[in-house]
Protein backbone atom coordinates (compact mmCIF):
# COMPACT_ATOMS: atom_id res chain seq x y z
CA UNK A 1 0.00 0.00 0.00
CA UNK A 2 0.97 3.53 -0.50
CA UNK A 3 1.81 5.68 2.48
CA UNK A 4 -1.18 8.00 1.90
CA UNK A 5 -3.57 5.04 1.96
CA UNK A 6 -1.97 3.70 5.18
CA UNK A 7 -2.26 7.10 6.83
CA UNK A 8 -5.90 7.59 5.89
CA UNK A 9 -6.80 4.04 6.98
CA UNK A 10 -5.09 4.60 10.37
CA UNK A 11 -6.98 7.89 10.89
CA UNK A 12 -10.31 6.23 10.06
CA UNK A 13 -9.71 3.30 12.42
CA UNK A 14 -8.62 5.57 15.31
CA UNK A 15 -11.54 7.93 14.72
CA UNK A 16 -13.99 5.06 14.71
CA UNK A 17 -12.50 3.72 17.93
CA UNK A 18 -12.83 7.07 19.68
CA UNK A 19 -16.39 7.50 18.43
CA UNK A 20 -17.49 4.03 19.53
CA UNK A 21 -15.71 4.41 22.88
CA UNK A 22 -17.56 7.64 23.64
CA UNK A 23 -20.91 6.20 22.56
CA UNK A 24 -20.57 3.02 24.60
CA UNK A 25 -19.26 4.56 27.81
CA UNK A 26 -19.80 1.67 30.19
CA UNK A 27 -18.18 1.73 33.59
CA UNK A 28 -17.32 -1.45 35.48
CA UNK A 29 -19.50 -2.26 38.43
CA UNK A 30 -17.61 -1.75 41.67
CA UNK A 31 -14.74 0.09 40.05
CA UNK A 32 -15.65 3.37 41.73
CA UNK A 33 -14.77 3.77 45.39
CA UNK A 34 -17.80 5.52 46.77
CA UNK A 35 -18.17 3.96 50.21
CA UNK A 36 -16.15 4.78 53.28
CA UNK A 37 -14.83 2.08 55.59
CA UNK A 38 -17.09 1.55 58.58
CA UNK A 39 -20.32 2.71 56.94
CA UNK A 40 -23.37 0.55 56.21
CA UNK A 41 -22.05 0.01 52.68
CA UNK A 42 -18.65 -1.22 53.91
CA UNK A 43 -18.86 -2.37 57.53
CA UNK A 44 -15.70 -3.00 59.52
CA UNK A 45 -16.02 -5.32 62.51
CA UNK A 46 -13.57 -6.35 65.17
CA UNK A 47 -12.80 -9.84 66.40
CA UNK A 48 -14.45 -9.13 69.75
CA UNK A 49 -17.69 -8.13 68.00
CA UNK A 50 -17.66 -11.32 65.94
CA UNK A 51 -16.97 -13.38 69.08
CA UNK A 52 -19.90 -11.71 70.85
CA UNK A 53 -22.22 -12.43 67.95
CA UNK A 54 -21.12 -16.07 67.85
CA UNK A 55 -21.73 -16.42 71.59
CA UNK A 56 -25.21 -14.92 71.20
CA UNK A 57 -26.00 -17.25 68.31
CA UNK A 58 -24.84 -20.28 70.28
CA UNK A 59 -27.01 -19.24 73.22
CA UNK A 60 -24.14 -18.37 75.48
CA UNK A 61 -25.11 -14.74 75.71
CA UNK A 62 -22.43 -12.15 76.12
CA UNK A 63 -19.16 -12.88 77.78
CA UNK A 64 -17.55 -10.51 80.19
CA UNK A 65 -13.91 -9.81 79.52
CA UNK A 66 -11.48 -11.10 82.13
CA UNK A 67 -8.88 -8.92 83.70
CA UNK A 68 -5.37 -9.76 82.51
CA UNK A 69 -2.86 -11.04 85.04
CA UNK A 70 0.83 -10.40 85.10
CA UNK A 71 2.84 -13.38 83.84
CA UNK A 72 5.17 -15.04 86.27
CA UNK A 73 8.86 -15.15 85.53
CA UNK A 74 10.04 -18.54 84.26
CA UNK A 75 12.20 -20.48 86.64
CA UNK A 76 15.41 -22.18 85.58
CA UNK A 77 15.20 -25.78 86.78
CA UNK A 78 18.81 -26.48 85.99
CA UNK A 79 18.18 -26.71 82.24
CA UNK A 80 20.88 -24.24 81.28
CA UNK A 81 23.44 -26.66 79.90
CA UNK A 82 26.08 -24.33 78.55
CA UNK A 83 29.28 -26.30 78.40
CA UNK A 84 28.19 -29.24 80.55
CA UNK A 85 29.19 -32.70 79.35
CA UNK A 86 26.60 -35.49 79.14
CA UNK A 87 23.81 -33.20 80.25
CA UNK A 88 20.32 -33.28 78.85
CA UNK A 89 17.18 -31.20 78.67
CA UNK A 90 13.64 -31.68 77.42
CA UNK A 91 12.03 -28.27 77.39
CA UNK A 92 9.94 -26.33 74.90
CA UNK A 93 11.72 -23.16 75.96
CA UNK A 94 14.63 -21.86 73.93
CA UNK A 95 17.94 -22.64 75.61
CA UNK A 96 21.33 -21.24 74.61
CA UNK A 97 23.89 -24.05 74.47
CA UNK A 98 27.65 -23.80 73.91
CA UNK A 99 29.21 -26.75 72.10
CA UNK A 100 32.99 -27.09 72.39
CA UNK A 101 35.18 -28.74 69.73
CA UNK A 102 35.01 -32.52 70.12
CA UNK A 103 31.49 -32.43 71.62
CA UNK A 104 28.26 -33.41 69.88
CA UNK A 105 24.92 -31.74 70.52
CA UNK A 106 22.44 -34.61 70.04
CA UNK A 107 18.78 -33.74 69.51
CA UNK A 108 15.75 -35.55 70.84
CA UNK A 109 12.93 -36.31 68.41
CA UNK A 110 11.24 -33.08 67.30
CA UNK A 111 13.95 -30.73 68.56
CA UNK A 112 14.94 -27.58 66.69
CA UNK A 113 18.40 -25.98 66.57
CA UNK A 114 19.59 -22.63 65.27
CA UNK A 115 23.36 -22.21 65.04
CA UNK A 116 23.98 -18.59 66.00
CA UNK A 117 27.79 -18.58 65.98
CA UNK A 118 30.49 -20.96 64.79
CA UNK A 119 31.05 -23.56 62.08
CA UNK A 120 28.76 -26.56 62.54
CA UNK A 121 28.24 -29.79 60.62
CA UNK A 122 25.48 -32.36 60.88
CA UNK A 123 26.09 -35.54 62.85
CA UNK A 124 23.98 -38.59 61.99
CA UNK A 125 24.70 -42.27 62.64
CA UNK A 126 22.66 -43.29 59.58
CA UNK A 127 22.33 -41.98 56.03
CA UNK A 128 19.26 -39.87 56.79
CA UNK A 129 19.66 -36.17 57.30
CA UNK A 130 18.18 -33.20 59.06
CA UNK A 131 15.63 -30.77 57.61
CA UNK A 132 16.95 -27.24 57.02
CA UNK A 133 13.66 -25.38 57.23
CA UNK A 134 15.23 -22.08 56.15
CA UNK A 135 16.49 -23.38 52.80
CA UNK A 136 13.99 -26.20 52.43
CA UNK A 137 16.75 -28.79 52.01
CA UNK A 138 17.80 -32.04 53.62
CA UNK A 139 21.28 -31.76 55.14
CA UNK A 140 23.06 -35.09 55.54
CA UNK A 141 25.91 -36.31 57.75
CA UNK A 142 29.04 -34.14 57.54
CA UNK A 143 27.44 -31.27 55.59
CA UNK A 144 27.79 -27.72 56.90
CA UNK A 145 24.96 -25.98 58.72
CA UNK A 146 24.39 -22.33 57.82
CA UNK A 147 24.31 -19.84 60.65
CA UNK A 148 20.82 -18.62 61.58
CA UNK A 149 19.17 -21.56 59.79
CA UNK A 150 16.34 -23.39 61.56
CA UNK A 151 17.16 -27.10 61.67
CA UNK A 152 14.46 -29.64 62.53
CA UNK A 153 15.43 -33.05 63.92
CA UNK A 154 12.60 -35.53 63.24
CA UNK A 155 14.23 -38.44 65.08
CA UNK A 156 16.47 -38.78 68.09
CA UNK A 157 20.17 -39.54 67.72
CA UNK A 158 21.05 -36.88 65.14
CA UNK A 159 22.73 -33.63 65.99
CA UNK A 160 25.46 -31.13 65.24
CA UNK A 161 29.11 -30.79 66.10
CA UNK A 162 31.95 -28.36 65.51
CA UNK A 163 33.47 -28.68 62.04
CA UNK A 164 36.80 -30.53 61.95
CA UNK A 165 39.80 -28.21 62.24
CA UNK A 166 37.84 -25.37 63.88
CA UNK A 167 38.98 -24.46 67.40
CA UNK A 168 36.11 -22.13 68.35
CA UNK A 169 32.90 -23.22 70.04
CA UNK A 170 29.35 -23.19 68.67
CA UNK A 171 26.57 -21.10 70.11
CA UNK A 172 23.25 -22.82 69.44
CA UNK A 173 19.66 -21.92 70.27
CA UNK A 174 17.84 -25.15 71.16
CA UNK A 175 14.11 -25.81 71.48
CA UNK A 176 13.21 -29.29 72.66
CA UNK A 177 15.21 -32.10 74.16
CA UNK A 178 18.94 -32.52 73.67
CA UNK A 179 22.07 -33.97 75.17
CA UNK A 180 25.76 -33.12 74.91
CA UNK A 181 28.16 -36.00 74.33
Number of beta-strand segments: 10
Order of helices and strands: HHEEEEEEEEEE
How would you sum up the major sheet? 10 strands, antiparallel
Strand-residue proportion: 25-35%
| Backbone structural class | alpha+beta
Average of per-residue pLDDT values: 79
Task: Tell me the distance between the termini.
Answer: 87 Å
Helicity, in percent?
A: 10-25%
How is the quaternary structure best described?
A: single chain
Please tally the helical runs, counting DSSP H or I stretches of 4 or more residues. 2
Outline type = flat
Rounded to the nearest angstrom, the radius of gyration is: 32 Å
- Show unreliable segments: 77-87
SSE arrangement:
Blueprint: H1 3-23, H2 47-58, E1 88-99, E2 104-107, E3 111-117, E4 120-123, E5 130-132, E6 137-139, E7 144-145, E8 150-153, E9 159-162, E10 170-180
Antiparallel strand pairs: 1-10, 2-9, 2-10, 3-8, 3-10, 4-7, 4-9, 5-6, 5-8
Could you walk me through the main structural features you see in this protein, from its secondary elements to its overall organization?
Helices cover 18% and strands 30% of the residues. Strands 1, 2, 3, 4, 5, 6, 7, 8, 9 and 10 form a ten-stranded antiparallel sheet that branches. The chain is built from two helices and ten strands; from the N terminus they run ααββββββββββ. The N and C termini lie far apart (87 Å). The longest helix is centred in the first third of the chain and has 21 residues, at 3-23. It is an alpha+beta fold and 181 residues long. The protein has helices at 3-23, 47-58, and strands at 88-99, 104-107, 111-117, 120-123, 130-132, 137-139, 144-145, 150-153, 159-162, 170-180. Mean pLDDT is 79; it is low at 77-87.
